[in-house]
Amino acid sequence: MSHGYVAVQWTRRKLIYDGVLLAGVSAYLLLFMGISHWWAAAANVPLETDGAAIRAYGSAAYILLHLTLSIGPLARLNPLFHTLLFNRRHMGVMVFLLGFLHVNGWHLPREPWSWLGQKAPQFPWSFHGALNWYNDFGNREPLVSLFTSNGHFNDFALFPFELLGVIGLAVLFVMAATSHDFWLTNLTAPVWKAIHMAVYVGYAALVGHVFLGALQTNQSPWLAGLVLAGLVWLLAIHLISGWREWVIDGRPLQPDSTGWVDLGPIDAIPDGRAKVFALAGERVAVFRQGSELFALSNVCQHQNGPLGEGRVVNGCVVCPWHGYEYRLETGASPPPFTECVPTFPVECRQGRVRIGLPPRPPQQA
Ligand code: HEM
Ligand code: FES
User: Fold this and answer.
1) 130: CB partners within 8 A, 6+ apart
2) N or C terminus: fewer CB in 10 A for the chain?
3) Which residue has the higher pLDDT, 267 or 234?
4) Which residues pair with 106 in a beta bridge?
5) Which are the contacts of 125, defined by CB distance < 8 A and separation ≥ 6?
6) How confident is the model at residue 32 (pLDDT cuts 50, 70, 90)?
7) Is the CB of 132 under 6 A from ligand 1?
8) Distance of CA 313 from the midpoint of ligand 1 (Å)
9) Does residue 237 have a pLDDT over 50?
10) Between 256 and 165, residue with greater pLDDT
């Protein structure tokens, strides 16, 4: 995994994951448009299909962004969510694509057809995005209009909420563009991580965009309320999972006089998964495979990813962040890779798990 390792590979599992993601997004968009048509028909008013599509794509991006940001803390709170950690980056890229379509729409550019005196051909599902649609009655370039038409920067109620959308989209673009492992390797892990923490800046801008947009264009207090509910949900699960980790780290388990630490009953570790414990100065992931136990450092050698949240495949734990693998027995990556993490002696006595200190030094395969 050190050199030439390609972590993003199209495995069958990833294809299924992406298929489910695409199907879910398509179903949401279809449902949104269907309900909009039904609503307009019931109210006996013509439907602005461009406007409905803009809302459908914008809300799909916004909801998916919440799902993407929820996965990390949820996986820390419940191992059931570990599977979702695996392909989180593809979800992030999908958020950007949906946000881009919300702004740009699905349509061919007017040029070069306008130069030939013709209209650009339409294709099914095409619509004008927020940038063009809201500028259609004006005579200025959409981008010029976007940045200059609303100067109410000192007025909360009239604030140009579209510019907050621009900040959000710019952050999503940088993240989607650098999401591939090529950039992870070339930018170095700390820079890459710092860039990806900017998602919270982008999220804050998008909360402002949708909250103010809901109040200004739709005058929809219930949508503004939903935006706040989403914000409270994300804050709550981040705080709860952070607090749980802080509690675990704050009460490190101490060894007895023989150097062994009691970790509690074996039943507390779900079969096929791991439980993470804090020992003096170190987090340890104890994996249970039937009646067999394995204890490894919880810290991945790549970027400190939480190995205790990884799946076990062919006797190796797969890091949930970028797929580095370590053998459960030795802590060594399978050849030709050379990374390895420390392991610990571990045993089960009278139904209780015990781990021995100090750790075994990392050993290469
Ligand atoms: C250049 C960037 C952007 C511009 C110019 C823009 C523009 C707009 C406009 C004009 C509206 C009002 C639509 C209406 O309700 O009539 C809107 C609403 C919205 N936007 Fe954006 N947007 C941008 C980026 C984004 C991004 C990146 C997201 C999500 C990730 C997003 C999510 C939403 C949502 C959820 C709504 C509310 C939809 C509703 O009313 O149901 N926008 N945006
Ligand atoms: S593979 Fe990147 S942190 Fe583990």
Assistant:
1) 54, 58, 102, 103, 105, 162, 165
2) C
3) 234
4) 127
5) 106
6) very high
7) no
8) 42
9) yes
10) 165
